[in-house]
Amino acid sequence: MDGGSSTVQRVEDVDGIRMQAEFTRFIKEFKNDAGETVYLTEAIELVQPERNTLHVDMEHVNSHSASLASSIQLQFYRMYPFMCEALQLIVIESCEDASDKLRLHKKPVFVGFFNILQRHKLRELTSAKIGSLVRIAGQIVRTHSVHPEIALGTFTCADCGVVTKNVEQEFKYTQPTKCSNAQCANRTRFDLNIDESSFVDFQKIRIQETQAELPRGAIPRCFDVVVRGEMVEGVQPGDRCDLVGSLIVIPDVAQLATPGVRAESNNKTGRGNQEAGAGLTGLKSLGVRDLNHRLAFLACHISSSTATFGGKDFSHEDISHIDLWKQMTTDEQKILKEMSEDKEIARNLIDSLFPNIFGNEEIKLGILLMLFGGVAKRSESEGTTLRGDINVCLVGDPSTSKSQFLKTVEEFCPRAIYTSGKASSAAGLTAAVVKDEESFEFVIEAGALMLADNGVCCIDEFDKMAVHDQVAIHEAMEQQTISITKAGVKATLNARASILAAANPIGGRYDRSRPLRQNVAMTAPIMSRFDLFFVLIDECNEGVDYSIASRILENHRTLASHTTKATKYTKDDIQKYIMFAKCFKPKMAPDTGDAFKSAYVKMRMNDSANAFSSSWRITVRQLESLIRLSEALARLHCSSHVTVAHITQATKLLSKSVVRVEQADIDLDDSFDNDEVVEENKENEENMETDQDPKVDPSKLRIKYDLYKKLSEMLIRHCRADEDKLGDDYNGVAQSSLVSWYLEMIESELDSEEDYHTQKSICERVIKRLIHEDKILIELETGADPSLVVHPNYVIGDEE
């Protein structure tokens, strides 16, 4: 056979050429309802250097030509180059500048389709859908760095120097099959001319099934997605997205690296010395090396699946409420205006968000304020960042709907991650550094807090977490960053997420006789990072139990009849209202400074046992929590300023969340077993009991904490009143006078002589406790009947 007959003639795709002509007519001729050629106008804008993608609505294609739409969906991968070439020719025709035309010949352009009606799950992507146009949904879990990819290569022959242009590249480096010079026989030695070649941005991301689509007991499926052009850096780990593109087959580079080595080594070492050629020598000898391929997804359009205004998601952007209001439709503006003017907006939002949970109104309000959040602040000079997200922890008995709160928030919030503390590691909660299977580079795998960026991370069984895992989220809960220094990777990642945690008390049941810190297995640094602590106790109350049973039965009937409970607002409306309210940046009014300071001092004094002991729960972080809660309340009412009313409501909520459910009983009988105290007051007790008072029953000397608090405040207020009345002439109140005054105050409550002696003994022991343990009262003169004054630094709980 001679050389001329060996020339292979180029085969043209007739269907592709027909598709190119039909797609060209669609771009030039399609008009919207206003009679405008929208796609031709948008195609002309691709002349700009930063633009390279035209997004087309499939509904418009279907209305223009059903056959064209069918061909695109069934043979997308085959027809895609022809559609891109048609778009490029239209852009070149619309350009008048000769230099721009020359640049556009080298510039690759792309076509993206959206508004595909049918959406497929990741598990439904099989080899039958290879090459067709499909729409999938999932969550982004990993993003790689952006790399340049050769679109059209220009090569120079190393033998004769002839230049071969426009060699198409697809997922791999492709040289010309032979030199374009008929006299040259070179087929392998070519040099890439980088200046004459065209490049396009290329990024690989990994998408994973969402929890809603995941079958029970199954591991989430992952797919590698290839994006190009304008779509690179368009998504972040944690985003839930809809992707439109084609399923493709690519070589599995990780498997092709060293196939059969493991089988060969096991065969050689496991059986000892074998004869050459005997038995299985490895997969490489079977030809499997050439058959290792895997599925990937080539995306042409990516859109967010979260609540949007005008088709755009503003969760990552800093936009004012005025600009966002202008971008809304008339119907959206009407709904949000009605919601913002609702005087019972908090109550209606709570009822609409938690229709299946009875009671616990404070907890519902706290979670609602967590969704609104406070205002994040940053100092330009020092770089100090103050978080705006609110962290909430629920502690309570079993079957008190803790997990139900977490599940409701996970389903409602667009960027919410649900995880369990016992089954999560430090790397799984923050981030991990893993080696890529193909490039063997170290990349960052996002953890739960990174995936929940600008959202909520729900952590159940928080108390079951190991101590070193709890330490790993210290930085994420306060600074809202994750610092990684592993395998040569040094990075500081954002974790701007609110944490909603649920924990069980030690022993399973909440012990009312012990404070909160002794009921939960958490360290003090972790507890101080939670803005709100709520305690849920399973109490036996006939009315409450009846209401809870009625609500549960109603929920069962509703689910059985496949109906939904009617609420004032839909979840979509609530999501849009929260997104709109978060655009407000409330500022403190001038008269709110004193209110913040007095509220903080009052809560800190109430939290400490006395004037000298430190506060274990109320720290400076809780002052910041008070500010965040006040800002969230202002956002709830779409207000631009924080008022005193907002501070008062936030103080009540914070006080309810940090108060102990029930204090331990005060045992006055054995409170003074200390030898020094007994020896010191032995003479005083003998002198005060000269009347030979009968011995009091020890069981009656054990009083409730509330009664002790009430009695001590009565005595302290009486001393303060005398001090204010006498002024500089005040020399204290005698202990016997204080006891007599107290007995006169409760004279109407004494029914017998036994009650009189009991109350007298209780009052005397309370005074001794205030002197020696709480150190609130000070003895000016020691002796049989000492004079007592109140410590000048002590502040009564209700005093402002």
Automatic annotation (TrEMBL):
Its main location: nucleus. Residues 345-552 form the MCM C-terminal AAA(+) ATPase domain. It comes from the Eukaryota. One of its GO terms (biological process) is DNA replication initiation. The keyword Cell cycle applies. Residues 673-696 are annotated as: Disordered. CDD domains: MCM6. One of its GO terms (cellular component) is nucleus. It is found in: Nucleus. One of its GO terms (molecular function) is single-stranded DNA binding. It catalyses: ATP + H2O = ADP + phosphate + H(+). Keywords: ATP-binding, Cell cycle, DNA replication, DNA-binding, Helicase, Hydrolase, Nucleotide-binding, Nucleus. Pfam families: MCM, MCM_lid, MCM_N, MCM_OB, WHD_MCM6. Belongs to the MCM family. Component of the MCM2-7 complex. This is DNA replication licensing factor MCM6. It comes from Pristionchus pacificus (Parasitic nematode worm). The gene is WBGene00108067.
